[in-house]
Amino acid sequence: MSSIIFVRHAQASLFEDNYDQLSDRGLEQARQLGKYFSQQALAFDEVYTGPCRRHQQTASEVARHSTHPSPPAIEIAELDEHHLDQLATQHVHKIAEQFPNIGELQIAFQSADGRAERQKSFARLFEATADLWVTSRCPLFGVESWPEFHQRVNDGISKIVGRAVRGKKILVFTSAGVIAVALRRALGCPDDVALGLSWRTWNCSLTEFAFSQDRFSLDRFNALPHLDNRKNWTYR
């Protein structure tokens, strides 16, 4: 058997001009993961990232603070996140015409006071939109559908595990939606259950699978052995 660890990217910059970069806390999360790999004498035979800057920044910070060298990260386009954010922001008003509850959640988000309340209200809006998306009930406005996203990510995972030889340790830096597809691959759970697990996936957490040519099994989900301080446990 070989092992593959998926790392959800460290905290990005929600509500900033450029979401796709790590926050100061995100940089610290990634540094702590690199130090943890050093303490555990963990090195990897192959390292992959998705194409987003937050994926690659997380990988770079981890590598910088690990004393056990691993090969340079290889970018795989199939490990990109879904683009639900476009539905929940750019197209939300049109979706609300068909689903009034989305409009109510949008109004609640717009009127939220303070960062914590904004995060909570945005999460409600985002997850309600995602429920429509994963069940193919909302217009897409050119955004990739759940079946298309699921197939694309599965192809990327197959690309990685299909060429690995027995006993390899593989590290992947990506996003929560990609990890949801990996969980569905291992558990065979319904689509909405798999996507729902992504809402509970911590930034910079570890989700590990054991695999061979005919098996892909979950070993651990959403682990944070490197973050002792709960202040560094973040979802967004």
Q: State the CATH topology of the largest domain.
A: Rossmann fold
- What is the string of helix and strand elements? EHEHEHHHHHEHHEE
Assign the CATH superfamily of the largest domain: Phosphoglycerate mutase-like
Helix content: 40-55%
Q: Calculate Rg over CA atoms.
A: 18 Å
- The count of helical stretches stands at 9
Distance between the termini: 33 Å
Mean pLDDT: 95
Sheet with the most strands: spatial strand order: 3-2-4-1-5-6
- Structural class call reads alpha/beta
Q: How many β strands by DSSP?
A: 6
Based on CA inertia axes, which overall geometry fits?
globular
The figure for the number of domains is 2
Mind describing the biggest β-sheet? Answer: 6 strands, mixed
Q: Low-confidence stretches at least 5 residues in length (pLDDT < 50)?
A: none
CATH architectural grouping of the largest domain: 3-Layer(aba) Sandwich
